[in-house]
Design goal:
single chain, alpha+beta, three-stranded antiparallel β-sheet
Length: 65
């Protein structure tokens, strides 16, 4: 995840590293509902799947200031 800004003093990013599993088929109710709540475009057109499940093992981050 990153944040870009024309003002480079506002740049920052986060990276999560870990094991990823592909969740086959249509998204399960819980994860799909979380996406619909977070992103309005998914309320009308939900993602068909599959989804990825990340189990973070390490987090890296950086910011300009």
């Amino acid at each position: 995840v990153d944040r870009y800004d024309e003002d480079w003093s506002q740049l920052r990013w986060v990276q999560l590293l870990g094991a990823v599993t592909i969740l086959p088929g249509p998204p399960a109710a819980g994860p799909a509902e979380a996406l619909r709540e977070r992103y309005p475009q998914y309320r009308e057109d939900p993602p068909p799947g599959p989804l990825l499940k990340l189990v973070p093992e390490r987090a890296l981050h950086w910011r300009a200031t």
